[in-house]
Amino acid sequence: MKHAMAVVLACATHVALAQQPDYRVDIPMDVYLDALAHISPAARDGAQSYLQAFRRRCGRELTTRELRRAVADGDGDPVLMGMIRASYQQDSGTRRVLESSISCSPRG
What is the DSSP secondary-structure string of 9-68? Predict the structure, then answer.
């Protein structure tokens, strides 16, 4: 819990200072997902759905660094943001459609 709060505070600090997050700092996936849950349970649920769909579609695990980029770069990965919104709205149909739109290519 203490580590998750540190992650949330670090993310908030970067946003407040309008700086790019330091993606070289490795954070365990479960800690990052817990930090998202503190922001919004739907953020964690949407990210979890995105991770599972990425694994099925791309045949590999998404790294924490890749997920962090998908959340934070620009306005965020549109598919991930849509999956978070669908989780919030409990819209499983939209989530399934978005799963088929996940790109296996690195962003940016």
Answer: HHHHHHHHTT----TTS---HHHHHHHHHHH-HHHHHHHHHHHHHHHHHHSSPPPHHHHH
